[in-house]
Amino acid sequence: SGAIFSVLLSRRPLSRVTLSFGVTLTAIPAGDLVTSYPLPGAGRIVGFRYVPQVVTSTAGDGMNLNLEIGTTNLTGGVLGLTSANTNTLGVVVEASAITGANTYAPGALRSIEGATGAGAFAEGSGTLHVDIELT
């Protein structure tokens, strides 16, 4: 017909997946807590959080956890666990915003790393959740 018009094409994730890992806070090492876990398909990591199942009670405990794809740290996504934010059953402790280095191709591997203060807790356990959008 000779008509000219604009089209906006956008690609939406096919699905969202949450990988969950049970952890005992006293056993988290300085270094990899989970090493080279295969990621599904291709996608991007979009969230990281902790939910206590056994609360902490000793004051002053704390550590940071971060995610890696291969051996590269994500930009952002640092999960700061403290005795103050893990002492209530069922609370959701969110990591800082993930802002980069979070996309991956098929066959990529992901690690969870204990960073600052790892191994510093006297008690507590819960579940780590990693949210992924598959593309």
C-alpha-based Rg, rounded: 18 Å
In terms of DSSP E residues, the strand content is over 45%
End-to-end C-alpha gap: 35 Å
- Taken from the alpha-carbon principal axes, the silhouette is elongated
Counting H and I runs of at least 4 residues, what is the number of helices?
Answer: 0
Average per-residue pLDDT, rounded, comes to 91
**Number of strand segments:** 12
- SS-based class: mainly beta
Biggest sheet statistics: 5 strands, antiparallel
Poorly predicted sequence stretches spanning 5 or more consecutive residues: none
Specify the helix fraction band.
under 10%
Order of helices and strands: EEEEEEEEEEEE
Kindly summarize this structure in a few lines.
The chain has 135 residues and is mainly β. The chain has strands spanning 15-24, 31-38, 43-54, 62-69, 72-73, 75-76, 79-82, 93-94, 98-100, 103-104, 109-114, 125-134.
What does this structure look like?
With 135 residues, this protein is mainly beta. Helices cover 0% and strands 51% of the residues. Strand 4 and strand 5 form a beta hairpin. It is elongated and about 75 Å long. The two termini are 35 Å apart.
Fill in the keyword field for this structure.
single chain; 135 residues; mainly beta; 5-stranded antiparallel beta sheet; 12 strands; 0% helix
List the topology elements.
Blueprint: E1 15-24, E2 31-38, E3 43-54, E4 62-69, E5 72-73, E6 75-76, E7 79-82, E8 93-94, E9 98-100, E10 103-104, E11 109-114, E12 125-134
